[in-house]
Amino acid sequence: MTSAAGARHRGMSHVTCHIAMSLDGYAAGPNQSPENPLGEGGMRLHEWAFDGATDADKEVRELITRGFGAYIMGRRMFGGGDGAWDESWRGWWGEDPPYHAPVYVLTHHEREPLQMQGGTTFHFVIDGIEPALEQARAAAGDADVAIAGGASTVQQYLAAGLLDELYLHIAPVVLGAGERLLEHVGDPRLEPVEVVATPAATHVRYRVIH
Amino acid sequence: MTSAAGARHRGMSHVTCHIAMSLDGYAAGPNQSPENPLGEGGMRLHEWAFDGATDADKEVRELITRGFGAYIMGRRMFGGGDGAWDESWRGWWGEDPPYHAPVYVLTHHEREPLQMQGGTTFHFVIDGIEPALEQARAAAGDADVAIAGGASTVQQYLAAGLLDELYLHIAPVVLGAGERLLEHVGDPRLEPVEVVATPAATHVRYRVIH
User: Fold this and answer.
1) Is the model's pLDDT at B5 over the cut of 50?
2) Do A174 and B180 touch (CB under 8 A)?
3) CB–CB of A23 and B190 under 8 A?
4) Which chain B residue's Cα is nearest to A186?
5) How many CA atoms lie within 13 A of B65 on its CB side?
6) What are the percentages of helix, strand and coil residues in chain B, rounded to 5?
7) Closest CA relative to residue A99, chosen from A138, A149, A58
8) Nearest-CA residue of chain B relative to A166?
């Protein structure tokens, strides 16, 4: 019995993750850098959400970009480089980030919460993925918690049995190199429960069976 | 313009490949051996075709196991070990293999054709993937040619631009190690044209755009 399964029994919020993946299993291209955070070719994983999106892609995008009570992300996704914080770094998204909810950033370096416009506040959590999830659950109330990424953060929550749902946007793209999504996750039991197929991506929602 | 694209224009047969892949991109598990040719856990990639198959899975299976005019496979898929042939080895499938058509086996070692029951004849081709495809096309007539596997053979045909269609059976399984399917294939342009979704697999037919 994992805490996530227990959470469902107690009627607590669901923990989900939606993330784009290439056909060869990469969530980002090679040579990620501050100038190119998705890596070379990584933007191609997200074309379904932008150019060429069909109505079905747009519906998926709307579904996954609203209604979460809290988010969790890795430090690299928040950006600003490694080591102690450069406090002038306020994320990639400008003063009104698209989260509109508390965002818990996993880090090894303390930092005061950062309140942005539009309801987004970044909280910096230094004591690991489980305390971060506890805080996110408490903030989310009845709403769901989303693991925003990147790959390493998703891996940690999946490996720990703390993810209830993995929603993959499988792009028809072969990157050949980059950051692999589903390594170091053990052997999770996954069941596809919903598929939305478009020319730009195959969107598959997997339930994680605890 | 690749020869495959040219083939379509001349009304020649289509070259397709259907193959099962784990969510983390493996076509076989680790530690493949004569006793365990699919590798550890590799059988889990094929559960959609056996236990737990829904009617939709069965329809996919029927579609992909009949009607091909010829097949091409790598030597490891045919089996019998490396090096010069042990002529007592007649494949994994018994005296009536499920192909019922000519099968061209890519090898570096000559061997006389092996006529089995039920219409299957194994031909051993030592001069490469393109001559093998020419022979398969000639044998297939108007029918399609299937690249039967394994991963390395699929990679070679995809990288050479000789594949018209890739039909992936994406199993909801994370193998963690094994033989990766889509490496060393360059950057093929793929378009999903059909998806059959079941609890056991997500079957996605990709057109290769030449």
Assistant:
1) no
2) no
3) yes
4) B176
5) 9
6) 25, 30, 45
7) A149
8) B172
- The answer to whether A106 and A76 have CB atoms below 8 angstroms apart is no
* Sheet strands (E) in B23-181: 26-28, 68-74, 102-106, 114-115, 121-125, 144-149, 165-171, 179-180
How far CA A3 is from CA of A15, A119, A163, in Å, comes to 11, 28, 10
pTM of the predicted model, to two decimals? 0.91
DSSP class of B142: T
Q: Which residues of chain A have pLDDT under 50?
A: 1-9
What is the percentage of chain B residues whose pLDDT exceeds 70? 94
Name B122's Cβ contacts closer than 8 Å, sequence gap at least 6: B78, B91, B103, B105, B113, B114, B116
Q: Residue A118 is which amino acid?
A: G
What is the ipTM metric for this complex?
0.89
Q: Are A195 and B199 inside 8 Å of each other by CB?
A: no
Q: How far apart are CA B25 and CA A20, in angstroms?
A: 14
pLDDT value of residue A11: 62
